Amino acid sequence: MGGTAASMLMLFTVIPCCFASDVLKKTRLGWIKGNQLQVLGRTVDEFRGIPYAHPPLNALRFRPPRPYGPWNGTLDARSKRTACPQVVPNPKAYTGITLTEDCLQLNIWSPQTRTKDVVPVLVWIHGGGFTSGSSALDWYNGVVLAARTGLVVASFNYRLNLLGFLDAQTPQAPGNVGFLDQNLALQWIRANIDQYGGDASRVTIFGDSAGGMSVHGHLISPLSSGLFTRGNQSVYTYVFGHQSKKNPLPSWMGIPHSYDVNYMFGRPLVDQHNFTAEDARVSELEIKALSTFAFTGEPMLPGDHPWPKYTSDNTVSVYISGDNVTEIRDFHMEKCEVWRKFWNM
């Protein structure tokens, strides 16, 4: 119910921006053509559908991904939007998105700066229970986040369902290739993001739902060591308790799953039809926490107050509800206690 509600609420969140022109860039993999957008008074170069792996078809199906590139000619990255094969939970949300096995592509939003200095990179991993979702969905569009923070934003697709996670215990289908897709995308970003103004030594990965689980997987996987920089930092947590006054759902239903994604990607800053001024302030709060973490490893609260660290001795979380930002302790601790009976946590 919560996930479905979130999908319906985010479906009509449109990003108003002005298309300026095409942008042509020479990279070490070849020439690439993208869009140049004007958002919040800033110019952002957008590149969609950049292949990071060969299409996982025929003999490559179920197998680990093979790196793609360089390409011949000019790669058109202006409008390609794909999703890996899945049972689509909300067809309207996938309007303009092609379901295809040739889906191993990534997107980059690169804000133009006055200097040639590279900036930190935010890499988004989409959710969907490892069975659905796509980086091409409208509510994952990174243009506002890039414009507001001045950071490079990237996202990518990975194989889902049986095509991504079938384990036949054979070389032809070794299992978890969806995670290997993610790993290869992160390798591509490390090797090439400097061509788009990003600093490969300052990469932060983040995600929702299955994307958040994926972040945890990369934290413990030796294959992902060195592909991002903020994984070994202190833990900071928050509970999102804000519900927009324009949310059509009754308050007794609570906050839909992944509802904060809209705020993290800055939708309330550009969509006054579906969001309020209070929503915009909450969005600014989330974006500031994310950007300061990307720069320093420590998120900041309004007024430049430090975000409290979560430790085993100090189980404190930030509770966000409108303009009220408070600290709460022992959130869902009773559920943790269940597992302490089996593991020494």
From TrEMBL:
Alphabetical UniProt keywords: Glycoprotein, Hydrolase, Serine esterase, Signal
Alphabetical list of Pfam families matching this protein: COesterase
GO biological process: acetylcholine catabolic process; choline metabolic process
Native species: Rhipicephalus microplus (Cattle tick)
Domain Carboxylesterase type B: 26-230, 231-339
Highest classification ranks of the organism: Eukaryota, Metazoa, Ecdysozoa, Arthropoda, Chelicerata
N-terminal signal peptide: 1-20
Gene Ontology CC annotations of this record: extracellular space; plasma membrane
Name by which UniProt lists this protein: Carboxylesterase type B domain-containing protein
InterPro entries in UniProt: AB_hydrolase_fold, AChE-related_enzymes, CarbesteraseB
GO MF term set: acetylcholinesterase activity
Membership in a protein family: Belongs to the type-B carboxylesterase/lipase family.
PANTHER family per record: ACETYLCHOLINESTERASE, CARBOXYLIC ESTER HYDROLASE
